[in-house]
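pinging the channel bc i need a second pair of eyes. not urgent but kinda urgent?? the chain im working w is below, pasted from the shared doc
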Amino acid sequence: MSRRTPKPTLKSEQLQERGRHFADLIALELESTKAFEKVTRGTAPQPGSLSVSGDTTRCAEGSSSLRFWVGMGAGSSYFDATVQFADADTGEKLGEMLVDKNSWALGGGMAAGQTVQSFMQEAAKKIAAQVAKSKADAAAGK
């Protein structure tokens, strides 16, 4: 009978730090869309602004060596989060996006390069693009 080694998970403070880093990436990507006059990070949203919040639910670096040489899920990396959007004035929930990323199971160079950082960057770009599109659609009356 084989025993499986439990997947390493980040400690609470490490998970919170990753969450802050992910929020910073989202803010940078929102800024780059030029859809908003100003993008700020802080605890108190400004009147008339969009509030973006969320939770990182799973974050595991895994092992790039295992992903490269073994594959088949060995050394997998994971990044899961929930991102919510709300009207800062009313608190009305405007939307939610789920981030569910994991490394490619078959291994090799592609899987070895799939890190939590790359997952966060990719997700932040997609989130910013969707928010910018939603804002443009709302302005156009769609």
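so Residues 25 and 121 are 7 Å apart (CA to CA). and The mean pLDDT is 84. — does that match what u expected or am i reading it wrong
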